[in-house]
Amino acid sequence: MKEKFRQAHIxxxxxxxxxxxxxxxxxxxxxxxxxxxxILVDNGSEENLLIELxxxxxxxxxxxxxxxxxxxxxxxxxxxxxxxxxEKSSDRLVFIENNENLGFxxxxxxxxxxxxxxxxxxxxxxxxxxxxxxxxxxxxxxxFINSNYRYVACTPQIRLYAKKDKLWNCGGCIKWYGNRKYxxxxxxxxxxxxxxxxxxxxxxxxxxxxxxxxTGLLTERxxxxxxxFEFSLRLKRKNKKIACVYDSVIYHKVGSSISTxxxxxxxKVLYYTMRLMDLRTYSNRLLYILYIIIYxxxxxxxxxxxxKKHFKIWRKVLKYLKEYDSVDRxxxxxxxxxx
Length: 339
What we know:
- InterPro entries: Glyco_trans_2-like, Nucleotide-diphossugar_trans.
- GO terms for molecular function: glycosyltransferase activity.
- It comes from Desulfofustis glycolicus DSM 9705.
- By secondary structure, this protein is α/β, with parallel strands linked by helices.
- The protein has two domains: 8-258, Spore Coat Polysaccharide Biosynthesis Protein SpsA, Chain A (Alpha-Beta Complex); 261-336.
- It has helices spanning 18-29, 47-60, 69-73, 78-85, 104-118, 137-147, 212-215, 227-237, 264-281, 285-302, 307-323, 329-336, and strands at 8-14, 36-42, 63-68, 92-97, 124-127, 131-133, 151-160, 167-169, 172-174, 180-182, 197-200, 207-210, 241-252.
- The strands form two sheets. Strands 1, 2, 3, 4, 5, 6, 7, 8, 11, 12 and 13 form an eleven-stranded mixed sheet that branches.
- Helix 1 runs parallel beside helix 2 (47-60), helix 9 (264-281) runs antiparallel to helix 10 and helix 9 (264-281) packs across helix 11 (307-323).
- The N and C termini lie far apart (58 Å).
């Protein structure tokens, strides 16, 4: 019989998002599940915003273990961890300062290494800082994982924060042509089941509960974006099961982190470069070439009135694919800030 998971570790990554993060923390503290630890990871926020966030946390948690990146990845200290355990879930917090923007995957992986160094049988939940949760959301996710041991990951139904009767998504599927499709995107909440679950093959990193000892960490090949597609693709290739748990509900502000990209053309160059790098890793050469043809044909059709734009995008994409196998921060900045 499989050992059941008791404690859930909720990882929230913050980068200059103090207001959103505080609202997210408030909603988690009000949830009904009683065995969890929040791990707040700051990814090099501006000093004034970091100070504001720390002050709020000190006023609202009885025990906070502050760690830098190296301390966290080694599991903190035994003395601090014992003191943390004495407080109830809503009164305890692990606060990790990375002191620089490591990106989404690498930033979250610091917390995941902290968890794995503390326990061999861990349950982690990545939760965007621009989300607000229903009071029963966590209990439903933990119950599902404990009742369905073949599943290594799950997600709640994710509704829009601004329009709470509309869905952002309920997970999705990875299509044969190398793209993902959301389930119930932009549907009214009355159009979906409100209990039970559905098998999915794509899960967004916005709200992702998983067993890191079985799935592995997030890929750090991409500074920002694509890590959830790689995670889903990796699990699909290994025949690992993922589900959307309809009973569990959160609300997402559908963040604009990628809005810092200087123009729409650069967004497309970044998207296609990372997606095809990802697909190349999990495909043979023939299938990879087919993916390129499919994406080329699709973008030509949507840019048929502006062919120069189409060719400009793909000259850059093919150049990056030839020269690189990943998109680190330097390349990310180079692509996104190009005029």
